[in-house]
Amino acid sequence: MPRVIRSGRVVVCCVFMAFGGAGSSRADEGMWLFNRPPTELLKTKYNFEPKPEWFDHIQRSCVRLSDGGSGSIVSPDGLVMTNHHVGLDQLERLSTPEKNLLKTGFYAKTRDEELKCNDLEINVLWSIEDVTGRVNEAITASMSPAEGNTARQKKIAEITKAAEEKTGFDCQVVTLYHGARYHLYSYKRYTDIRLVMAPEGDIAHFGGDTDNFEYPRFCLDMCFFRIYENEKPIKAEHYLKWSEKGAENGELVFVAGHPGRTQRLYTVDHLKFLRDTAYPFMLNALWRREVQLLGFSARNDENARIASGDLQGVQNSRKAYTGILAGLHDPEIMKQKTDAEKKLRAAIAANPDHAAQWGDAWDKVAATEKTYESFYERYATLEGRASSGGSDLYRIARNLVRLAEELPKPDGDRLREFHDADLDSLYLRLYSPAPIYDSLEIDRLSSYFALIAERFGADDSIVTRILAGKSPRDRAVELVKGTKLKDVAVRKQLAEGGKDAIAKSNDPLIRLAYDIDPEARAVRKRYEDEVESVEKLSYAKIGAARFATYGENEYPDATFSLRLTFGEIKGFQEDGAQVPAFTDFAGLYERHKQRGGVEPFELPQRWVDAKDKLKLDTPFNFICTCDVIGGNSGSPVFNRRGEVVGLVFDGNLTSLVWNTAFTDRVARTVAVDSRAIIETMKKVSGAEALAKEIVGK
Amino acid sequence: MPRVIRSGRVVVCCVFMAFGGAGSSRADEGMWLFNRPPTELLKTKYNFEPKPEWFDHIQRSCVRLSDGGSGSIVSPDGLVMTNHHVGLDQLERLSTPEKNLLKTGFYAKTRDEELKCNDLEINVLWSIEDVTGRVNEAITASMSPAEGNTARQKKIAEITKAAEEKTGFDCQVVTLYHGARYHLYSYKRYTDIRLVMAPEGDIAHFGGDTDNFEYPRFCLDMCFFRIYENEKPIKAEHYLKWSEKGAENGELVFVAGHPGRTQRLYTVDHLKFLRDTAYPFMLNALWRREVQLLGFSARNDENARIASGDLQGVQNSRKAYTGILAGLHDPEIMKQKTDAEKKLRAAIAANPDHAAQWGDAWDKVAATEKTYESFYERYATLEGRASSGGSDLYRIARNLVRLAEELPKPDGDRLREFHDADLDSLYLRLYSPAPIYDSLEIDRLSSYFALIAERFGADDSIVTRILAGKSPRDRAVELVKGTKLKDVAVRKQLAEGGKDAIAKSNDPLIRLAYDIDPEARAVRKRYEDEVESVEKLSYAKIGAARFATYGENEYPDATFSLRLTFGEIKGFQEDGAQVPAFTDFAGLYERHKQRGGVEPFELPQRWVDAKDKLKLDTPFNFICTCDVIGGNSGSPVFNRRGEVVGLVFDGNLTSLVWNTAFTDRVARTVAVDSRAIIETMKKVSGAEALAKEIVGK
Predict the structure, then answer these.
(1) Which of B12, B7, B15 is nearest to B661 (CA)?
(2) For A472-572, where are the alpha helices, taking DSSP H only?
(3) Residue pLDDT, tens place only, B541-552
(4) Which residues form the domain of A462?
(5) pLDDT tens digits, one per residue of B181-212
(6) Looking at the domain assignment, is residue B509 inside a domain?
(7) N or C: which end of chain B has fewer CB within 10 A?
(8) Which residues from chain A sit within 8 angstroms of residue B288, using beta carbons?
(9) ipTM exceeding 0.85, yes/no
(10) Are residues A159 and A202 in the same domain?
């Protein structure tokens, strides 16, 4: 499952919508806001009328993990269920060459044995407030788009800060419909998170990259954490109950989680920019990195261990983007998009008042994407997704340099990630004692340096400044061997020393980040002033146009904030054959045998041994038509009574077009069955006590 | 070892030269012409003075294989030794799902069992003549570069054809020093080639992509063919004798083979074009394809079998280009190049007569590379290395379309690959009954179509014409399922039917190739008129300048024609430790154990079983300072007496910079030891008779 990854790595977040305008028959499409739930649809199609408390209870039982994924609280003692691949970063950091949790799995028999995570943060959405009016107050008619953007950012920082001071919650203003609405989200924030249980990597990701995004599947992609406060597990006000009997074929089910990003509301020209510029660049960067990481990992077992998170992340993103791009290369999909856009624009053009207000928005987006195209690669590599090359040390250096520059400024004037409201999370990551490996850091940085040399040419001024007369690899070695930033105390000293400490530091990575900062800020400013501001303004108009034409009963694109989606458990037709909705343990052992048990189809020894003990017809994985995307990884699947029946961990290949448009003909969400979770805890992992806690007995 | 690959795949050919001008101390550098051998150097440095007959004998004992590699005749009965990876295409074509020669290896106990190859051609260089004067006669002062280029091509075709008619040899005019010299090479051409012996792939490529270009190594990368004429093995006039006792550390050894391409004489601006434009593009295409092929191969064993050649080729090229590009990103190397160029230009500038004749050549190259940059990707994807995406069917279709167009023209006016002198080879490939697999063809073509959509944008006119309203994958399926070109009879019919048959054909691949041809020809013409012609003219001047300044005792860049190189068997220092020149069988079993025997460190069962029988201290692989590059794969290593002591199959990673400049500090050529070849034939492969034939007893 593509997941949203915190930072540094490529963020994957995607989907597809047959947006025919109001009244078109819509399948079970929709990533609905909890403050605008699809009550009408549920009533009409499923005769289901949940009370407001039902929605509140679900909302407050769900969590967002700072490593980039979703989860849910599944016991009164703050037990959190998510995916193994969401917990991967933490499992990697808690492992050593001698004790590799990715290989062996982990289970804390007692609370004392639960392992504290270094830099994991969990958020629970407590309340939502529409602040669109307050945000827009900041903008006057005389402002340019860039000025408006700045004023808006300032206002948002102000609203956020005020809300945090007033409520004590962790607050965030979420931009919806790409700028047509702004909602204030208030979260309970937890930072003492401990690892409770994870199965072996080989069963969590059985089939590896080969089976990723495929179906049928046989993966126990789960991981359990527990939320602590004051050294004790929290007493959860809200948590999801468990369904021991699971769900059945055709049953209505729900998913609540944090879909990362979709582009269903993008204009056709905006999609073409993604298709012809952004995605090809990102895919190239991913192919490149995947090949390099495979080479790095093949050198020895320790390399393979420390790079497994990077590799899995890259392969996952690569497969996701491949599917998304294939969707954009599908003329049928582009035709649907074009037709829908024509229809909406015609409706707006037909009303002179509407035309005057909103008619120019589409062309404005088209023009700004053309501008963006001209500096997209520079933005992506210096400030955007591909910047830093995934290097922990370089990211730390950059954050230290910018922190010194930003902190003295008034809150509203800072780069947005340095607002007071965000500092706690920033410090948590900055001071994380998680291990950093020289060899992997050198590999990441030399790859990053070579990338910019390849893209801009080795004589480009920013490239020569970064390389300082060395080859990419020699420069990476020099920086990684020379820096002291692996030492958390050094980081603290520099952070507390402010501008002066940064100016005086002769740490080579600090110096590099400092030298590059003006150029990186300049390209960021250009993006914000010339692209982001115009997009926000134009999509606010397009949103208004859409609301005026179809009514305000459409959901916004995904934004890594909590959404509710519903659908049915349902197989699909492929090449004339029916693919059933459920797989079982018998199928797992069959596939293991069929692929000769060689990697990535290896089974851990205790799984081989457990074959006779396991109830082989236990449902293992299932598929449903719920509308999800990267970031939804770890989301609970639950029934009308709010009981967990499964755990989302993937979508099939054909679901990747959901980035741009939804279809449920053959696209499906893939989940672990609640019955398999309990059966394997009891029969394979020796985690009887955990199983009891979950089922509440 | 990078090898030159016939067509379709990316051609890898490369190297490095510390060109300090005459008089500088030069290590054992040099890819020498057989008609200008380094007699002075051999005498001075090694006190070795071979007679002219020594060179003639070596020259006529060496062969070039049309699949893109080198070899040598090693018995009076026309036995040819080359690498397993050079024979790979043929091994793949001779395999079936039931009988996979790549897995099992092959040995023909009797002549009757030798397997006939479908489309392999072997050439033996018989004589060389300098025709520079005759070629240049064609060009008058009033011609533009483009006109000159056309006239030169015409003249070359005329010289070639006349020579073939007169001698019955297969002739080729080789462009040396990028245009300063033209030599006519006359080859004996053989097309009845049969497979005699190949070991299992797992021992031939032990360590796979992980160990490729590394040292120490443990690979039995060998393959034996036999040349037939009139259904009988040829009686070879010249063949290399065998050295049973091999060579020792520090011994002078020689390599004769066909290095593919080097850029040691390129101007600095030309190298920058490669560094910033050509190589990044090619590497991107390779990363992309490698990831896709890994996915394709992982799906099932049959996919892995049919794609193994593609995958190995791509991985090999990727590793080679990575090393070459790393060299160009090394400021020291670029400084050497810049200094040497400055020195030569200063010498030319100091002589007004020389300055007037040649002084503008460097700037001309710089300007033309700028022009090339503007259409490089279009050229590469429509007509150059990346065109056709490796699809056999698409290549067949294009050749049929062009054959119909070109054949009616006078020989001199045709596209150069359709000259009379080249038609035999063309037909051999065109009518090859080698198997073509739908699934792999669909994968190749959909990848190719997606590539051009990514690079040019999906709305580009050539892209929309190629895709014809379908997605890349749907279009590939439609074409592969719809074409009849898998049938050799259909190809013959179309080839014999000429223009008319092509115009009437409704084969979808013929139609596609036909529709695209004008655009492909246009971009090719642009390349030839605006780039190639200026390069030839300018390098002819630079060559003359160089000869005038340093004398004519320098070797030309590699051109996939026969060269002689010499050096010593010699280890190197790495991270303070000495890497010895030789490995042995004991080391092989040690590495197998150390890496757990898992792929790519698996050993075939009979190798595991043979451990006790083998003399474990037999030298297995060795390294030497001979100056080689991709295309040299399969070259013999021999001693002063002309006896085979080894078989070149690779260079180490640091040798990849030899593309641009030679250094022998840590860069080495890697070879299989002649003793290992005989020992394993006797003790592992049951090929006693073959061993006897080789050692001549």
Answers:
(1) B15
(2) 472-482, 488-504, 508-526, 533-550
(3) 999 999 999 988
(4) 360-555
(5) 999 999 999 999 999 999 999 999 999 888 88
(6) yes
(7) C
(8) 283-284, 287
(9) yes
(10) yes
